[in-house]
């Protein structure tokens, strides 16, 4: 009988059968000490099952009460107008601008695909920043097609659902009135002192690493379109090229619409790598006709000349 009892205890799953302590001690004299210890441990675990279950319920109830108390406190603080996190502050009132900005993408055949993808990212940035701007502009992307459209279809299929932007396959001159157009190019001798909200400002969608100098200026002249450059030389000296990406020009204009200051707009947006410093008002650089967008300011210092030569060497 003792042997049958031992086999019965060893064959059955401990979780399926709880063994009384007396039976474990008196009915299993042939068990090894290790087996006996394991059996007693299993029995103790079974006896404390309900206790563990109750502890879990208590902890769960405590966490629920803590959450309710915290939610109540936050609601009271919200009603009192205190304790609000700065990230939850209400958004500034948005007042759309009547200004129109165009990215001219008619240079598609002049770019490599890797540069077209850079232009694609710059347009994405323009779209995103315009959606968050205090004074969002009316945004146009014209001459959309070729490599750029291919990149957008492959990398950003959701572009067809973008809001508050006009995609046009036609040239900007076919979409907007010619007399309202002003092409923004740093090669223009005309300096844009302030924005005219009745005008349409065109930004050249070209990433060419200085392979096509002055092409935006030449095309504007060929079409008889007004042109101007941002008043960069009046406020900023840089120890690098004056070329600004499409999104930088776009963002500078948005900040100007908000702040009403070119200087603040330039120093808010220009990348730190450009090394921009404020121009001494007595030594403000005067733009020269035909000044290339890739050149340093006209008043080069020795350090600027050295930087320019170093850049030239790196390019080759």
UniProtKB/TrEMBL annotation:
GO biological process: one example: tRNA N1-guanine methylation
Location of region: Disordered: 1-91, 278-316
InterPro entries according to UniProt: MT_TRM10-typ, MT_TRM10-typ_sf, TRM10/TRM10A, tRNA_m1G_MeTrfase_euk
Compositionally biased intervals (Basic residues): 52-66
Chain ranges of the SAM-dependent MTase TRM10-type domain: 87-277
Domain of life of the native organism: Eukaryota
GO annotations of cellular component type: cytosol; nucleoplasm
Alphabetic keyword roster: Methyltransferase, S-adenosyl-L-methionine, Transferase
Catalytic reaction(s) noted: guanosine(9) in tRNA + S-adenosyl-L-methionine = N(1)-methylguanosine(9) in tRNA + S-adenosyl-L-homocysteine + H(+)
Entry's EC annotation: 2.1.1.221
Keyword Lipid biosynthesis recorded: no
Gene3D superfamilies named in the record: 3.40.1280.30
Residue ranges with Basic and acidic residues bias: 14-24, 279-292
GO MF annotations in UniProt: tRNA (guanosine(9)-N1)-methyltransferase activity; tRNA binding
CDD domains, per database record: Trm10euk_A (cd18101)
Active site: 208
Function according to Swiss-Prot or TrEMBL: S-adenosyl-L-methionine-dependent guanine N(1)-methyltransferase that catalyzes the formation of N(1)-methylguanine at position 9 (m1G9) in tRNAs. Probably not able to catalyze formation of N(1)-methyladenine at position 9 (m1A9) in tRNAs.
Name of this chain's protein: tRNA methyltransferase 10 homolog A
Origin species: Takifugu flavidus
